[in-house]
Amino acid sequence: METQVYKTPLLTKKLLDQYRKEAEAFQREHGRKPCLAVVLVGTDPASAIYVQKKEETCRATGLDALDVHLDPSVGFAKLKETVAELNEREDVDGILVQSPLPQGWDERLIQRMIHPAKDVDGFHPENAGRLFIDANECLANGLPPCTPAGVMEVLKEAGIDVAGKHAVIIGRSTIVGKPMAQMLLAADATVTIAHSRTPKLPQLCRTADILVAAVGRARFVTADFVKAGATVIDVGITREESADGKAHVVGDVHRQDMEGLAGFLTPVPGGIGPMTIVMLIRNTIRAARRLKSESPKI
Q1: Is residue 9 part of a domain?
Q2: N or C end: fewer C-beta atoms under 10 angstroms in the chain?
Q3: Strands 238-241 and 190-194
Q4: Given the residues 33, 54, 118, 165, the one annotated as active site
């Protein structure tokens, strides 16, 4: 069996071209570009690189990116104050606070503080509730979490019919695992969420027509987890250093094990990661439009 390794550059380009036109239309109508504020606390190298990529993609797509960099020494209260100020700014449409925050800082509180109309990560309880109630409506018009939304775009573009399939998700985070389950369930899949306490995990995963790996452990999913012909979506990203000291990323899936076994595979790098940023751009434009049309009280 030949494994289809589905890289996303063509899809990301197609979508970003579409969103660039939408951003230009917004600017013509409102006299400014949609604006995403990205808040980074500290100097974590991986976070800094990811934030830079988000901001570069924003600007290349016709959005403004507001870079807010805080030193951890300013304290958690300063971060709360910053979020409150961004909530009030009429020239800011989306707010993203980059994870992870310094140890001991309440990330859930920050997620709740971001106004749901500007919550382009889709983590606010109100947006999470909208996803739970009607995931299809949230995907079409709301602010869904970016990584699972990117997975759904890949499945749609690749022509993979989800309806009636058994989907197993390894990982139960509020960022990927849980919202991924809601989206696949709304697409008429039968969904199982697995995690670190799931007994006989490889055996369970071998029942999956669609296997989503979002466990955060490099090369965790081996051939023992996958039945022949399955669709394997690798969401994990782990940074490693090679013998020469150069950094590279690997996924949750042991890619070599998938060759000739999986029917379809999204690789790392070049798979779901870029789609996460594309969905962030989409959410920011949606937020900008809704803020102008609905003018919610903030």
Answers
A1: no
A2: N
A3: unpaired
A4: 54
Q: Is there a catalytic annotation at residue 98?
A: yes
- Ranking 11-20, 67-76, 240-249, 258-267 by mean pLDDT, the lowest is 240-249
Alpha carbons 31 and 28: distance in angstroms, whole number: 6
Q: Helix/strand/coil (H, E, C) string of 44-102? A: CHHHHHHHHHHHHHHHHCCCEEEEEEECHHHCHHHHHHHHHHHHHCCCCCEEEECCCCC
Which range, of 26-35, 84-93, 240-249, averages the lowest pLDDT?
240-249
**Residue 295, pLDDT score:** 45
Residue 298 has pLDDT above 60, yes or no: no
Number of domains in the chain: 2
| 0.90 exceeded by pTM | yes
- Token code pair at residue 287: 């937020």
The span from the CA of 60 to the CA of 12, in Å, is 13
237 lies in which domain range?
Answer: 144-274
Decide if 54 is catalytic. Answer: yes
Q: Is 106 a catalytic residue?
A: no
Question: How much is the CA Rg of the chain, to the nearest whole Å?
Answer: 19
Per-residue pLDDT at 297: 43
Quick check: is 286 in a domain?
Answer: no
CATH number (domain holding residue 157):
3.40.50.720
Concatenate the DSSP letters of all residues of 231-277 into one string.
EEEE---EEEE-TTS-EEEE-SB-HHHHTTT-SEEE-SSSSHHHHHH
149 shares a domain with 42 = no
Exactly one of 33, 98, 111, 118 is catalytic; name it: 98
CA distance 219 to 251: 6
Summarised one tens digit per residue, pLDDT across range 198-257 is 999 999 999 999 999 999 999 999 999 999 999 999 999 998 888 787 888 899 999 999
User: Which residue of the set 64, 93, 119, 121 is catalytic?
Assistant: 121
Q: How far is CA 202 from CA 205, 224, 261, 263, 268, in A?
A: 5, 6, 15, 18, 21
> pLDDT value at position 242?
80
